[in-house]
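Lab meeting tomorrow. Look over both lines:
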Amino acid sequence: MILYFLKSLTRLRESLVDERSLQLVRITNILDKIFPEFKPFFKSTGLKSSTAQYLLTNYTTPSKMANMTRASFDKMKSELRNTISYSKFCNLKELAKNTIGNEDEILTFELRLILDIYKELNNKIEDIETKILFELNLLTCRTRTVVGIGDIMAASILAEVNNFYKFDSANRLLAFAGLEPSKDESGTEAHGGKMVKHGSPYLRRYIMSISNQIIVHNPVLYDYYSKKRNEGKSHTVALSHVAKKLVRIIYYLETNNKDF
C-alpha cells in the first residue's frame, strides 16, 4: 500500500515539476522582452535562484530595480541565506537603468501572475516531497545509499519497480526500464543500439536523469563513464552505459539487502 501511494505521489511530483519548468520558460520569454539583461546576469545560478526570484517578486520591472537603494540590498540580505554581493547588486541596478527592454504594462502583469503560479507550484512540490520522504522512511530502500541518488529519486525508482524480486535478473529489470538494446529478429543487437520503448517510461526517465547527474558525484560511475568515453563512445552512448550499470547496481543492492 505504501509503494502504491509512493508511486502516485512521485508521478504527481514529476507532473508538477514539468509544469514548473513550463512556467519558468514563460517567465524567461517575458523577461526577454521587458528586461533581456536579467537572465544573463544570473547565468551561474539561473532564474530559479532565491535572489532572482526575490528580485522579480519584490521589484518585477527594470525601472523599480534601477531605483533600488542600499536599504533594499540590506533587506534582501537579511531575508535570504545567500545572495549576490553589493557590487553585483549595483551592477544589476545599472543594467536595469540602461536596459534595451520595453517595460510593457500587460507583460508586467503577466509576469507577476506567472511568478505567483511558479511559487505556488514550488510550494506544492515541497509539500509532496515532504510526504514522499515520510513514506520512504517507513521502507527499506538500499537505492538511497548510492552516492549521487537523492532520496526523492530513490523513492521514485522504488515506487516504479515496486518489487525487485519479481525480476529474476538485472536484465529483466533493464527490459522493464526500457534500457536494454533493441534486438532484430535474429536476436542480435540492432545498428545504433537504440533503446526499446516498452516498460515504465517513468522509470526510464528517472534513470536517465540520474545518470546525467550521478557521474559528477559518484567516483565509481564517473570512472565507468570515462572508460566508455576513452573507448570512443559519444557522451549519449556512454551515458546509456552508465544508466545500465546503475540499474544493475540498484538491482544487486535491493535484492541482496546491501548498502552501496
In short: Residues 47 and 53 are 7 Å apart (CA to CA). The longest helix spans residues 2-34.
